[in-house]
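Predict structure. Chain length: 93.
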Amino acid sequence: MKKILFVCATGGITSTVAEQKIIEACKEAKIEFKAYRCSAPEVSTYLKDVDFIVATAAIGDNYPIPVINGLPFLTGIGKEEVIAKILELAKAD
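Prediction complete.
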């Protein structure tokens, strides 16, 4: 089971929006995952415990795990492509 870190500026509202969309998509695809949520400054404290990051805030990309831009969950532009990429990562061994 993959562990996904959802990140936004405060660790609250926009990361929750992204998380809920991924919960729906993973249910449909029958993929289980564990979700974590945090604010941008807290990312480094979660790195050893998660497989990849979905960020709705700018956090950079200098991390040892994949960082997915979650902004499409807020704008709707490119959302399906981002969901497909996250599902692919969530399924990977």
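Summary: The helical segments are 13-29, 72-75, 79-91.
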